[in-house]
Amino acid sequence: MKVGLEVLLAENHWLRRAPRYAEIRDLALRAEAMGFDSLWLYDHLLYRDAEGRPHGIWECWTMLSALAEATEHAEIGSLVACTAFRNPALLAKMAATLDEVSGGRFTLGLGAGWNAAEFVAFGLPFDHRVTRFEEALQIITALVREGQVAFQGTYHSTPGCEILPRGPRPGGQPILIGGFGPRMLRLVARYADSWNGGYVAAPRDLDQLRAALADACTEVGRDPATLAITAELKVAYPDLAPPPPLFGDRYATGSADEMAATLSSFAEAGFTHLMCTCIPSTPQGLERLSASLRAYRTTGTRDRPASAAAET
After folding, report:
1. Angstrom distances, CA of residue 119 to CA of 82, 109, 124, 126, 181
2. Total-model pTM
3. Structural domain boundaries of the chain?
4. Are 105 and 74 in contact (CB under 8 A)?
5. pLDDT digits (tens, 9 = 90+) for 276-296
6. Cα-based distances in Å from 22 to 63, 66, 254
7. Which residues pair with 196 in a beta bridge?
């Protein structure tokens, strides 16, 4: 199982601001040097809190391009790129170019978007999101995998588009899709190389969704074993910084050996890739998580899984 790091681009409570690019680059290079398999960036434009106050985040694709040049061997990916933010044919073109810059290290993560505040702020349509996403997928997957497409839909169309030049991989970049509802899971089963189940603290958190995804694969005639399963592991070190309520209060936490056992439990449950959100995402937090990664790769399976009970 691969273990990656989510590189945070947004305002956070330990810095009380968004990180500068120098800090983002430094953390990414540290993670690569520590042996993390991959680096993942969110694709958002703006957040608002419960009182409506705005909270900022850097634009994903520009940062991905910069980190593709700054790093050497870690995989990079979008987790996930919102297809509503960019013309789908242009997004496929951008993915091919980024894969070239990275030397074939890029995974194209895609999603329909969920944060209404940023759609409103940037004047983007929020209606019929799954239908719009399905149309975008038909354009993007054809261009990524085959290099050309002609498509006419209700919301997206291209009379005939080609991706030239092609990126370094003849079959294009792997496509990861994040989604949870019945229609989204059917789209995952039909189009994705891998699925991301979102934020979890333990493997069992995705049991129901994995069963539903297997049913969706059966429905579209796909062997579920051909679809890689990934998730975002919420890791917290409360003594360094109190974790926020990130899609629930449960986080994985514990000593290096306990956390190594937690990583092992995901591998044993059939996950192929974990993308870790480390709270706090600082050199100190990263050092602790990397100790768990080293232990996982050697002796982590000997210990009991860590608790998933850090509360905010």
Report:
1. 11, 19, 5, 6, 20
2. 0.93
3. 2-178
4. yes
5. 999 999 999 999 999 999 999
6. 11, 11, 30
7. 178, 230
